[in-house]
Structures are given as structure tokens and as C-alpha cells.
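C-alpha cells as discussed.
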């Protein structure tokens, strides 16, 4: 497995396009959430800036979404779905270009979960110095905090069920917290593993 990955997306936008790059570090022995922790997105206009009319014409990914392993959630208005494939399991990634909010939902079927994956993720999250809030139950934990020297807020939840290991990760710039906080709270309330 490569240690660092980069994925590039070209998203049509009228007479121009936007480029999205996802950078992540994968360290399998240190848990799946570490992969998301290092993920960063950068959007930049390649040609002309998209105007409001072009934003309205983009295909939205909003509405109820059900993953292959049964995770169900509502994608808020204004998000587009990016196509990303993890090494194992299923990953669903949604991006809001105006608010720079990224939502990643990850599912792994029971027979494919590496031994100790949940426990490893739990241990990393509970000791992560970037985490400002951590809570847990018998088969789940949540964490939130700041990445990139406080420039990015993240919130994540992971749990094990009879249908496998499930998690979601939401991140957005601290400067756009007025948009990101309510979307993160709404998503957490409607996501069903």
C-alpha cells in the first residue's frame, strides 16, 4: 500500500472547470481515521470564476443516500458527490464548493475489517492532541477538533455494528464555521449506521 496518495478531480463548471485535489497519508497499522486526518482539499478556478447562474446549473447530490452496507444519511443542499475508491470497503465523498465543506462516509463489511481496526482508531482518536471533544459508548466514539494550526474544523464518528465498521468525517475552514457547524450537527443527527 502506498504511504501517500493524491487524487485529482476535474469538475466541469460552465465554460471553465474546477480542480479538486485530495491528499492523504495512509498508515494501515495506525487505523483508518488517520487517512482522513491528513486529507486536505484545495479548489481553485482554472478559467473564469463560476457565477451564481453556473452554480445553480450544477447537478446536486442532495437528498437521502443509502450506502452499500446500509448506512443512510441525508446529503444537505448544494453538495456534489466526488468519486473516490478506498482500498477496502466503500467511501462516499461530498463537497460543498461555496462553503468548502467535505463530508466523507466510509463503510467496511464485517468480513473485511482488519483485526483491531476499531480499537486502533479509538486509541488514536482518544490521544490525538488536535481533538478538543471526545466521547464514546460501547461500540462508537465521536471526536472533533482543529487541523492545520486551527484553520480547519473536523468532526467524526465511528462505530461497529453487525453490518461492519462505519464512520463519517466532516471538515471545513474555521473561517466558514457559521455554515459548517449547523451542517455538521444536522448530518450527525440524521446519519444512521
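Sequence:
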Amino acid at each position: 500500500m502506498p504511504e501517500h496518495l493524491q487524487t485529482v478531480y476535474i469538475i466541469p463548471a460552465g465554460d471553465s472547470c474546477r480542480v479538486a485535489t485530495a491528499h492523504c497519508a495512509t498508515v494501515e497499522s495506525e487505523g483508518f481515521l488517520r487517512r482522513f486526518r491528513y486529507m486536505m482539499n484545495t479548489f481553485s478556478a482554472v478559467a473564469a470564476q463560476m457565477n451564481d447562474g453556473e452554480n445553480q446549473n450544477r447537478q446536486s447530490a442532495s437528498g437521502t443516500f443509502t450506502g452499500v452496507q446500509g448506512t443512510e444519511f441525508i446529503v444537505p443542499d448544494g453538495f456534489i458527490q466526488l468519486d473516490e475508491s478506498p482500498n477496502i470497503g466503500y467511501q462516499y465523498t461530498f463537497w460543498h464548493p461555496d462553503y468548502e465543506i467535505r463530508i466523507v462516509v466510509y463503510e467496511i463489511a464485517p468480513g473485511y475489517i482488519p483485526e483491531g481496526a476499531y480499537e486502533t482508531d479509538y486509541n488514536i482518536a482518544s490521544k490525538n492532541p488536535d481533538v478538543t471533544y471526545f466521547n464514546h459508548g460501547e461500540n462508537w466514539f465521536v471526536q472533533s477538533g482543529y487541523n492545520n494550526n486551527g484553520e480547519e474544523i473536523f468532526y467524526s464518528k465511528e462505530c461497529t455494528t453487525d453490518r461492519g465498521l462505519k464512520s463519517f468525517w466532516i471538515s471545513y475552514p474555521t473561517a466558514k464555521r457559521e455554515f459548517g457547524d449547523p451542517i455538521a450537527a444536522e448530518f450527525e443527527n440524521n446519519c444512521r449506521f
